[in-house]
Amino acid sequence: MNPVSSMPVALNSLPPVRSLGAPAPLSYLVGQDGDGHWVAVETGGRAGGIFRTRQDAIRYACIETGCRPDDVRLSAEPIPFRLV
């Protein structure tokens, strides 16, 4: 019997370590723009969209971030959003 294969395997509860060259994980801010449209905007300004409902905006942001905790935040203040 191989002694290595009989050793118990511990699950790592720590988050994975990013390499120095890896991009930072995306995070999104969800809220309404000045006209009352629901928007989800990536905090770096690289992505986002206008949505029919708050739930749709949250769903989009969750999918984009991999549903990581604390990567989708709700804003009580209007979010400036412009199409380029």
Quick tags:
single chain; 84 residues; alpha+beta; 4-stranded mixed beta sheet; 1 helix; 4 strands
Question: What is the topology?
Answer:
Elements: E1 28-32, E2 38-42, E3 48-51, H1 54-65, E4 72-74
Parallel strand pairs: 1-4
Antiparallel strand pairs: 1-2, 2-3
Give your account of this protein's structure:
The chain has 84 residues and is of the alpha+beta class. The protein is built from one helix and four strands; from the N terminus they run βββαβ. It has a four-stranded mixed β-sheet, covered by helices on one side. It is globular.
Would you tell me the overall average pLDDT? 79
Number of helical regions: 1
Kindly report the oligomeric state of this protein.
single chain
| Secondary-structure element order, N to C | EEEHE
Strand order of the biggest β-sheet: 3-2-1-4
User: Which class best fits the helix and strand makeup?
Assistant: alpha+beta
Report the portion of residues in β strands: 15-25%
Overall radius of gyration: 19 Å
Largest sheet: 4 strands, mixed
Low-confidence stretches: 1-19
Helix content: 10-25%
What's the shape? Answer: globular
Terminus-to-terminus distance: 64 Å
- Strand runs, count: 4
Short description:
The protein contains 1 helix and 4 strands, in the order βββαβ. It has 84 residues and is an alpha+beta fold.
